[in-house]
Amino acid sequence: MKAAEHSQTIVHQISKIKRQVFSHPQLIRILIVSMFLILILGGFYRQWGRNINLIALIGQSQTAVRHFIDPTSALTQTNNRTNILILGIGGADHQAADLTDSIILVSIKVKEPDILVLPLPRDIWIPSLRAKLNTAYHYGEQKQTSGGGLILAKAAVSEITDLPIHYVILIDFEGFKKLIDLLGGVDVEVTRSFDDYRYPIPGKENAEPEELRYEHIHFEAGRQPMNGETALKYVRSRNAEGDEGTDLARSERQKQILLAIKNKFLSTKVIFNKSKLLKIKDTIEDSLITDIDQNLYPAMARLALDFKSKNLKSANIPIYLETNNGNTASESALLIHPEIDNQYDYQWVLEPKSGDFTQIHEYIKCLITKQVNSCP
After folding, report:
1. Spans of the chain, pLDDT less than 50
2. Hey, is 69 helix, strand or coil?
3. Which residues 6+ apart lie within 8 Å of 82 measured at CB?
4. Which segments within 142-249 are labelled E, that is strand?
5. Total-model pTM
6. 136, 213, 214, 310: least CB-packed within 10 angstroms?
7. Is 87 among the domain residues?
8. Residue 193, Cα to own-chain centre: how many angstroms?
9. At what angle do helices 148-161 and 136-143 cross, to 10 degrees?
10. Are residues 223 and 161 part of one domain?
11. Contact 109, 123 (CB under 8 A)
12. How many angstroms separate the CA atoms of 256 and 29, rounded?
């Protein structure tokens, strides 16, 4: 009887979570909720299928509910904030597969919902590493194959931001290609037709002649189904002609794919399909490396549910760059591009304009405590 009642409670919680997710469609929240919900439910189904001790199962579920109701009791915090680092890597089929090309800091005030999303340029030079920020995970894994990459990446971001990084999530984008195929593909509305004649072919980065390194990809405007391979090309294209070649357009394409994945995640065909849910859970776990304990997944899901647009702040660290017409971009910049020389191993890098990260520390402190547009 208790087992049946417990199962009904789980179903009720799923329905409640789905209503809250659909009522506040901000991208970061719904994606995190979807991912952690799949992991939570997949774990429940798998343990149930193994016929483990029901008392133990109920106890674990009670802990999950308690963390969902009161995430502040479960999550590590500093000054009432939990800081999470999100990293993205290309995956095994790409050259330098463990370089983190996407680096995002998410700082959350837990008790009074407030969230700062701050992307960090991958080319920031880290003096303590004598390398760029996007290499920290790579070098950490070389030193310590189990968890060293996460530790060094967190340390490098702390050096830049002067914030403790409590948790880190690393996502393998190749895994999301597999996930999309497992979901049966996604439907996407391509807003503008575009061509990219320099889309890199994995494994042919050094092919000669140079044109053999690239393929031509084309997307026609209109609604269309995409499998994992097509969707990955759609979001990773960097050299499209015209407006679709900008970072803004690429960001919008990524948002489209993530929303499409979310819609499939939360469909009844997935949530209540034990076999499919377990396969998706396994795929996510294969594509996800994190130091977040599984017992904290409900707390993470609840945090994501609590945020609304008015609580969300997004910013960037201003960069000083020369433009094509000789003018400068972002006169109040905190990062600059120095001359390429042996000090930086002849790499294109970004470094603090002031010579150290002190001004960046003050800027991030301002972003956390004030309105973004009031920070110099």
Report:
1. 1-30, 48, 52-59, 323-327
2. helix
3. 75, 76, 107, 108, 110, 166, 167, 303
4. 167-172, 186-190, 194-200, 214-219, 222-226
5. 0.72
6. 310
7. yes
8. 27
9. 140
10. no
11. no
12. 15
